[in-house]
Amino acid sequence: MPDAVIVSAVRTPIGTARKGTLAATSGERLATHVVREAVRRAGVAPELVDDVILAEALYGGGDLARYAAVAAGLRSAPGMAVNRHCAGGLSAVAAAAAGIRSGMDRAVVAGGVQSSSTAPKLTWPVLPDSDLDPYRMPPTFPYTEHATDDVSLSVGWSTAVEVGITRREMDEWALRSHRRAVRAIDAGVFADEIAPLKVTRADGSVVEFASDEHPRRDTDLAGLAGLKPLHPEIADFSITAGNASGVNDAAAALTVVSDAFAAEHGLEPLAVIRAWASAGTDPGRTGMAAVEVIPRVLARAGITARDVAVWEINEAFASVPVAACRVLGLDEEKVNPYGSGCSLGHPVGASGARMLTTLTHHLRRAGSGIAVAAMCAGGGQAGAVVIEAV
Predict the structure, then answer these.
(1) CA distance 90 to 312
(2) Which listed residue (33, 214, 346, 361) is catalytic?
(3) Which terminus of the chain has a smaller tally of CB atoms within 10 A, N or C?
(4) Are residues 135 and 124 in contact, defined by beta-carbon separation less than 8 angstroms?
């Protein structure tokens, strides 16, 4: 069976939605930029790319993968849209790896894109009068009292309650996330993975966007503690804007090829994809799905948590990685060393691919080791991928 190896991994800087640098940049442009750059950096001839697979979320339909393939000059590569909400980027890369390990494909570009700033706002008819009301997206699950599209309840709060996580613990995790992200930016850690792009801003000015803009340098524990809970009507509610992820714009793409293809074309593998897994749980405890998928993906890779050098467990809410560390006994120092959703931001469709991009470059610098990306996803879902340095 062929191995699926990553020969390039690239992303845009992450913008703050609606008021940041990418507020007027479409998802189509973001997707095209990273697909083109992923292929260029890999050194793969465009006509040899078998497919382009991109996650997208909260768009209500479309196929940005095919758009990006054509716009990036990969006209012979079809495109497939993947939607597993937050975990879509991980699922896109897993689909690429599956095609390669089965022998059906030899070279695939996979990743995800999110332009929360420019995503269309949908309406739908509400019976019996058929008035058009705002409609964010097709529902992922039947809504109940305990599971709606208010993710502060079904992800952040439910996880904190189930595991017994305090407001202070979440705020402390969020603060550390910002500090780690700022430290990484200042040290140039993300330089090799980011593909800067020229952006026309809403005021008509043109700038080169080259660095993540969401992390806050002025965050401190007192400031986080002073933020109002998102649901003050609920006793002891502890989820705030400070210990939750941002709303963001970004795209990321990885070129995944068979080990034989890499050898044949003189490509240098950065990492090998060892395993992947998805999981589901009750939608009312969505955050815990990220905890439950980790043992599954470790078992598929034939490893234990002790074998993992670095983790990224997405901070959709700070309660999620705190819960994973507590329930699974993970070393917090190895989790999210460069920040995650609370600091870098959470561009939903792109986050999984962004996480794998960051971890791939981490392993490349380290020269050895195993990394795991894991995250919950809307409706009680989760995804995880294991990669190893080559």
Answers:
(1) 12
(2) 346
(3) N
(4) yes
Q: Which of 178, 342, 362, 376 is catalytic?
A: 376
When pLDDT is cut at 50, 70 and 90, the band that residue 253 belongs to is: very high
The catalytic residue among 86, 214, 342, 362 is 86
Tens of pLDDT, residue by residue over 184-203, are: 999 999 999 999 999 988 78
The two three-digit tokens of residue 313, written as one number:
């467990």
Q: How many beta carbons lie within 10 A of that of residue 382, not counting itself?
A: 30
Q: Mean pLDDT throughout 287-303?
A: 98
Active site residue 376: yes
Q: What mean pLDDT comes out for the span 115-121? A: 87
DSSP 8-class letter at 61: S
pLDDT score at 137: 56
Catalytic residue status for 325 = no
Helix (H, G, I), strand (E, B) or coil at 112: strand
Output the CA torsion 64→19→336→52 (10° steps): 10
Give 305's DSSP letter. Answer: G
CB–CB of 38/8 below 8 Å?
yes
Beta-carbon contacts of residue 145 (< 8 Å; ≥ 6 apart):
none
pLDDT in tens, 35-93: 999 999 999 999 999 999 999 987 656 789 999 999 999 999 999 999 999 999 999 99
Residue 126: the pLDDT is 73
149/205 Cα distance (integer angstroms): 37
Which of 30-44, 133-147, 169-183, 228-242 is least confident? 133-147
Amino acid at residue number 364: R
Report the candidate in 344, 160, 321 with the shortest Cα–Cα distance to residue 240.
160
| Enclosing H/E stretch for 251 | strand 248-258
pLDDT of 147 > 90? The answer is no
Q: What is the dihedral of CA 165, 237, 347, 341, to 10 degrees?
A: -30
Take residue 183 and report the two structure tokens written for it: 């430290």
- Note whether 281 and 274 are within 8 A (CB): no
Contact (CB, 8 A) for 199 and 21: yes
Task: Please name the amino acid found at residue 160.
Answer: A
Amino acid letter, 59: Y
Q: 3-class SS at 387?
A: strand
Beta bridge partners of 122: 135
